[in-house]
Amino acid sequence: MEASYLNRIFRVTIGQFFYAIGSYLSIQANIGLAPWAAFSMGVTYYLPLSYGDVIIVSGLVILAIDLLLRERIGLGTLLDIFLMGKFVDLFQYLGFVPLIENFFIGVVVLLVGQFSIALGTYFYVGAGMCCGPRDALMVALGKRLKRFPIGLVRGLIEGTALLLGWLMGAKVGLGTVIAVFGISLILDITFRALRFDVTAVVHEDLRQTWHRLRGAQRQEESA
Fold first, then answer.
1. Comparing C-alpha atoms, which of 11, 3, 120 is closest to residue 74?
2. Are 120 and 19 in contact (CB under 8 A)?
3. CA distance 140 to 157
4. When comparing pLDDT for 4 and 102, which is higher?
5. Residue 178 DSSP one-character state
6. Directed axis angle between helix 51-68 and helix 133-144, to 10°?
7. What angle do CA 119, 70, 61 make, to 5 degrees?
8. pTM of the model
9. For 74-100, how does the pLDDT look when each residue is reduced to its tens digit (9 = 90+)?
10. Where are the transmembrane segments (predicted)?
């Protein structure tokens, strides 16, 4: 495999690692979960699955929907499905941050987690190997619901995930509000500090990756 691809895969992996730290800290902050975290946590109350396993299973289901909607899927999409959930499971197993009982400390821990998510996003999106299945679903629906702002489309998707999570018993609170509305500001601050223009990233889907790697292999064989 080309060294450039190994570097990009490493970048995606690092991104998922930081993203998972952020998700783990948002759980341990104990002041309310983000929409998809609430959904995943809620499912664990009803099925014999770990939090990470729920992320994987739900990611695969959403991936199938993305494919039906003909949205581009890349190697980064698949790594997102399998890595992030298992990283969170690992952090929960290690238990290096206790469940926070103090509200103000919980807010600090949540904010640190949000910055970790922003840093993870910088790494994995910057690899240019397509986004995760949930973001891909937002893009796919946005293309088909052109009369609606993309923010509304995202809000409907995450609102549905949050409602289902809340109905299943997941904790919803101030942390949920910070996660929903604060992440945009935190992403902006992080991207500006790192001088990262997310709109300039050119993504490569699985088909393009396959053809590029096959082409490189043929060149090596003919050399």
1. 11
2. yes
3. 12
4. 102
5. I
6. 30
7. 65
8. 0.88
9. 988 999 999 999 999 999 999 999 999
10. 17-39, 45-65, 77-97, 103-127, 148-168, 174-194
